[in-house]
Design a protein that fits this description.
CATH class of the largest domain: Alpha Beta
Strand order of the largest sheet: 2-1-3-4-5
Largest sheet: 5 strands, parallel
Order of helices and strands: EHEHEHEHEHHEEEEEHEEEEEH
Number of helices: 8
Radius of gyration: 20 Å
CATH architecture of the largest domain: 3-Layer(aba) Sandwich
CATH topology of the largest domain: Rossmann fold
């Protein structure tokens, strides 16, 4: 019997994965589902699982940073991610198992069976450090992003996003096709995910803009984006924004 922990900041995603495992996978017991990544390390050390299903894209402390915080990694890892093919090659080369979101039962079965065949513990710090350096470099080129909604996940190309706007604890994601997706996550969640993507610029505390869609900037601090979207740049941020825009 393999004891496992799920670490995912999205409550419904973690619970769905737990239910899939309990209902369709034999030989794995879920000890805990952790939604607050700040508690993940202490819980893992306390419960000493054999396996951790680890989300990568989490605000505050992502999955890679969590792994780096361990002096010794004496548990196996199956990553859960929305990364596309270019990054998946890094998983394969370094022999890590992964689940692509949204996670299906068939994909879960395939991944767990693959894990059973080559089960090992990645306590070699050099091996996992090499992997993290590779995958974090690739993550700066993130092509897709997972947008948590209430009761659903939408995965879209980052290149299709015009801007993201804060909306009282939620986030409105405006897309080039004219659609708007309202996420159940606050804007800071997306700031963390997109922080290494040079195409996106955070403006104040309320907006993230895809610089590729800026069509005009007025000196009084108004940005015009495609689809006639307007955003005001706070006075304190204008100089930095203009420097970024002209790079």
């Amino acid at each position: 019997m393999i004891n496992a922990i799920i670490v995912d900041d999205e409550y419904m995603v973690g619970e769905t994965l737990k239910n899939h495992i309990q209902n369709h996978i034999t030989g794995i017991t879920i000890l805990s589902v952790i939604n607050d990544v700040k508690n993940a390390k202490s819980t893992i050390l306390k419960l000493a699982p054999d396996l951790v299903f680890l989300d990568i894209q989490m605000p505050g402390l992502n999955g890679f940073e969590l792994l780096r915080s361990f002096e010794e990694i004496n548990f196996d890892v199956i990553f859960t991610t929305a990364y596309t093919t270019y990054a998946i090659e890094a998983f394969k080369v370094h022999a890590f198992d992964y689940l692509l979101k949204p996670i299906t039962i068939d994909e879960l079965k395939t991944t767990v069976n693959r894990y059973y065949l080559k089960r090992r513990t990645y306590s070699d710090k050099q091996h996992i450090t090499s992997f993290l350096e590779k995958i974090e470099h690739l993550s700066s080129k993130t092509e897709r992003i997972t947008i948590p909604e209430i009761g659903a996940l939408t995965i879209i190309q980052t290149s299709d996003i015009i801007c993201l706007k804060s909306d009282y604890g939620y986030t409105d994601v405006y897309c080039k096709d004219g659609s708007k997706i309202t996420s159940s996550k606050p804007l800071k969640h997306f700031c963390e995910i997109l922080k290494n993507n040079t195409k996106f610029c955070e403006i104040g505390k309320s907006n993230i803009v895809n610089l590729n869609y800026v069509t005009k900037y007025y000196n009084e601090g108004t940005i015009i984006l495609e689809n006639t979207i307007k955003i005001s740049v706070p006075r304190r941020s204008r100089k930095t924004f203009l420097a970024t825009l002209q790079q």
